[in-house]
Amino acid sequence: MGAQGPAANGTRAMHDALPAPLRDAVDEFAGHLASVRNRSAHTVRAYVADLVSLLDHARRMGCTEVAELSLDTVRSWLARQRTTGAARTSLARRAAAARTFSAWAHRTGLLPTDVAATLASPRPRRTLPTVLRPEQAALLVEKPAHRPATPVSVGLASPTDPPSSEDRPGTGASGDTDAAVRLRDRMLLELLYGTGVRVSEACGIDTADVDQGRRVVRVRGKGGRERTVPYGLPAQRALDDWLRHGRPVLAVPDSRDALLLGARGGRLHPTTARRIVSGYAEAAGLPRTSPHALRHSAATHLLEGGADLRAVQELLGHSSLASTQIYTHVSVERLRAAYRQAHPRA
To answer: Which of 33, 89, 211, 234 has the most CB atoms in a 10 Å sphere around its CB?
Structure first.
């Protein structure tokens, strides 16, 4: 399965137990997702794991070639997933994986017909995202300026974190490093809330991606798609402080052009960034908060402030407007809550 194969040993064992024609189809499909569809490694792993599960189920029903796959087989696989307790969101994703594979296999001649074209997906229950109030978001992004650095904000990797270039020693005195880390933390928080970018996008920004004259930053999103996102004056001030007084303290030769650095000079890892956000939120007495909650908050506050839904879609990098519309529901729920609380006839 190569680099595109699933990491789970159980999935790999199922893959290796498939008949050769099915195994080859899995590998070719993984390559198609990665190189042609330009899907992320995470998406490829998820789809391949679902496909291996489907084809293992088909093998148990006597299927030895892709051409023998039928709609009934796919439906019985999903039914079995449901009886074993799979969530509706998981079933919807697995149905999508089956449809994608079926369409690809038909185009490539492995299937005589697109057997899963009419496969219905269970509609997942859509929960509203966690959103901070504007004053809570302001309290969070300003917290690094009012709090001494701690192991949470310094961003040292724990033994369970993925390998990171942060593990290399940095330079500078301890006091200088602590001050630089606080400036980094403030920059990170301002960037996440001020632009609504994903945490992986924020950590992937290089210094050359920032146009300070126009106050915009170029980010690379899902599928390698690039977009340009504006940021405001508070983020600009945090950026100036970080570039002048913070980044030079933490930078090492291996830092290269990374905008956000770990405490030891490597590019900041998304796992560390998540810990930074949750640590400051806890210190500020806020609800459990993640970088994605800041993204949700930014989108909701934009819409509540009168921003056009299409503009918010572009800012967030959503390929579909349906993904952005969830934030209109958040705003309506806030309106309802305010009405219930304040109106005498609520």
So the answer is: 33
